[in-house]
Write a structure and sequence with these properties.
By secondary structure, the protein is an alpha/beta fold. It has 30 helices and eleven strands. It is 48% helix and 6% strand.
């Protein structure tokens, strides 16, 4: 059929999976796929040329399901990566590229881990984006109802969307021919002689993500059964439940299948969607006023409507909320495992506990006491997270003084960690108990710790409606939770850091020191690699790791420079740290939205979130440049030839010089305060000497 569609709903995730983003080496260095921006723009151009106005709808929270470890997938990925590195270091680059691509092509990790950036890009291009409370399909079904204002003319997505009652579904678009393939649900039902409810039953019996294939079908027809045959069985018994019940006498084991079927059917008929009146309710709430299954066992406990709204706007990553409502934080397998990675996870227990505790503190009394357990692949037992006794105190009475408001207004740079730490004392706050003591009671308000009362420090009691003030307030709370304003006073280490390009890297570096996961020694990989990388020096290891934390200016071509196994392993450590800190800041931000401490126009909440730190982790590209510089004593011209993706390698090296100077100031300060040992200090002094020597050749 030729294009006549105007406003079309797009099921975002299947659409993303079809994008031609092929960057085999991206998995080795992290960061945003370099070709993603051009790919997205090309796809938007296709929509525009076809006179289609896309409305992208992303999935939100997960429904509750049984815990799985996916150890087989992890083992296969580990094997592929090991083969890739072995081939790479043997100079077999085509084979290495193939193995690297295969290691992540089925998980789509490079795209799924950057959905927040993709949403930002689409917003910047004026494209409408929405996140469903749970699945995108039911939300698309609601928005495509003719009764809805500005409803969608058509929906483009997977055939599973037919289960949710989408009557006009585009399954494929041929941009070259200017046509598309679509199916009409009414015609299908008429041809099969089924009601939509019977159609759902037949689909579930054939096998669905949440319901396996009905065993009797395999026994009766074999694996080559037809959908029409299953439809006839459903019509014979009127519905799926009666069909299953008919076989229960001969197959008692079908009782478990019956429960799976009813639960899956309830998930479809009562899926939660976000209505235009800003409430989250089942999609067919009138037709199924009495669900056949407890919805709390499918979707988890009921959350505030405000929270579903912030999810819909992409303000917060659903990860922490998923962990909370499921009661489990299941640590995913890393791309590359090391003892240092596991040590970082131990360190992050406190950060993650604080994050979950902060979320629960803004929910109802029943949810405040909800237990959450952590499961990790390298530990035999799960353990409880102490969120009920965890101190997240930041009184609502805390206000911005007129003095700090004026300083924020006068600032010509983005509100940063450094600015926040420098002006922290301008706030009126109670004393803080030690961040590491999770069993300590919340601190009591003490006016003796408040700044002097005078006219310039009078307290503003209104909600914060200014973006910069809201960012300052959020960062103050987050740094407080991270222990930067307790003894030892880590906040002092970032007060004078002004360059926006090294703000995040400075905090990451301090956290790496606090967790004892940064050193000049080789990483202890698990299992030990079967290959040997090129010879290196301790100074090169330390410098390349530290300087891999800062961003680089790269073009939009797939990576064409060398890669490094050690830097990949170290980046995996920083990746989980980066993500955990981002989650903490997002939930901190969310808490102030939920209690209306920060109030913004609805369209500004997502923009506010994108301005908070740790939004997009850079690649480890600068670490690769530094390693080449130290080991090979390369000139700027040679570096530009070896690393063609850099837009301005000299300017990026200038940032690296500035960041290393900041690092050395921090190291010397902490050594003087007996916060780091002599071995660590000496390794940085040695690296500093090597760095200064390398600079002479530039």
């Amino acid at each position: 059929m030729n294009f006549k569609v105007k406003l079309s709903g797009i099921e975002a995730v299947p659409w993303l999976f079809k994008l031609p983003v092929k960057e085999p080496f991206q998995v080795t260095m992290g960061g945003l796929p370099l070709t993603l921006v051009d790919t997205l723009q090309n796809e938007l151009n296709k929509f525009k040329k076809a006179n289609i106005k896309p409305f992208f709808l992303f999935n939100g929270l997960h429904n509750l399901r049984e815990k799985t470890t996916n150890s087989n997938t992890f083992n296969l990925r580990t094997s592929k990566l090991n083969n890739a590195w072995e081939s790479y270091y043997k100079g077999q680059y085509s084979a290495a590229e193939k193995y690297f691509q295969e290691s992540h092509e089925k998980t789509f990790t490079p795209l799924l881990s950057h959905i927040h950036y993709i949403i930002q890009y689409l917003n910047q291009k004026g494209v409408e984006v929405f996140k469903a409370p749970f699945f995108a399909g039911p939300q698309l079904a609601l928005f495509s109802e003719p009764s809805q204002k500005n409803y969608l003319n058509a929906v483009y997505g997977s055939q599973e969307l037919l289960l949710f009652g989408i009557y006009r579904l585009i399954t494929d678009i041929d941009y070259e021919k200017g046509s598309y393939t679509w199916v009409d649900l009414k015609s299908i039902l008429l041809e099969l002689g089924l009601t939509h409810d019977q159609f759902i039953d037949a689909c579930l019996l054939c096998g669905f993500e949440y319901c396996p294939t009905f065993p009797v079908i395999i026994n009766s027809f074999g694996k080559d059964y037809t959908f029409k045959a299953v439809c006839d069985m459903v019509k014979q018994y009127h519905n799926g439940v009666e069909l299953i019940r008919n076989y229960l006498y001969n197959y008692p084991t079908l009782e478990k299948y019956m429960e799976q079927f009813i639960k899956a059917k309830c998930l479809i008929n009562n899926h939660l969607v976000f209505y235009p009146n800003c409430t989250c309710e089942p999609i067919y709430k009138d037709a199924y006023s009495r669900p056949s299954y407890d919805l709390n066992q499918i979707f988890g406990p009921r959350l505030p409507n405000d929270l579903y709204f912030y999810i819909s706007q992409g303000v917060v990553n659903p990860m922490v909320i998923n962990n909370f409502i499921s009661g489990y934080l299941m640590e995913p397998f890393p791309t590359i495992e090391s003892e240092e990675y596991c040590k970082m996870l131990d360190y992050l227990k406190i950060v993650r506990t604080k994050t979950l505790a902060l979320l629960s503190s803004n929910l109802n009394d029943e949810l405040k006491t909800k237990p959450v357990k952590t499961t990790r692949w390298f530990e035999p037992k799960e353990f409880d997270m102490a969120i009920r006794i965890c101190n997240t105190d930041f009184p609502l009475s805390t206000k911005l003084t007129v003095d700090i408001q004026n300083k924020i207004k006068a600032s010509t740079k983005p509100i940063s960690f450094g600015f926040t730490a420098k002006h922290y004392d301008s706030l009126q706050l109670p004393p803080i108990s030690n961040i590491s003591n999770l069993s300590s009671p919340p601190p009591q308000n003490n006016n003796n710790n408040s700044p002097n009362n005078n006219e310039s420090n009078s307290i503003n009691t209104d909600p914060i409606k200014d973006t910069d003030q809201g960012i300052f307030y959020t960062l103050t709370h987050a740094l407080r939770l991270m222990g930067y304003f307790t003894a030892p006073y880590f906040g002092k280490l970032i007060e004078n850091v002004e360059n926006p390009r090294i703000q995040e890297a400075t905090v990451l570096f301090i956290e790496l020191l606090r967790s004892n996961t940064i050193s000049s020694e080789k990483l202890h990989f698990i299992p030990k690699p079967s290959f040997e990388g090129p010879a290196t020096k301790p100074e090169a290891l330390l410098l390349s790791r530290v300087l891999s934390l800062i961003p680089s200016q790269l073009d939009n071509e797939a990576w064409g420079g060398p890669i490094d196994h050690d830097i990949m392993g170290f980046h995996e450590i920083t990746r989980t740290l980066y993500k955990s800190l981002r989650n903490l800041i997002e939930i901190t931000c969310l808490s102030h939205f939920l209690n209306h401490k920060i109030v913004l126009p609805p369209s500004e909440y997502f923009n506010f979130s994108t301005q908070l730190p740790f939004f997009l982790q850079p690649s480890a590209s600068m670490g690769l440049v530094v390693k080449g510089l130290i080991l090979e004593n390369l000139s700027i011209e040679q570096l530009e030839n070896i690393f063609p993706n850099f837009v301005n390698i000299k300017a990026d090296l200038d940032v690296a010089f500035e960041f290393w100077d900041t690092v050395m100031k921090i190291v010397k300060t902490l050594y003087q305060d007996n916060m780091i040992g002599k071995v660590v200090y000496d390794s940085f002094i040695s690296a500093d000497q090597a760095w200064n020597e390398a600079k002479k050749g530039l």
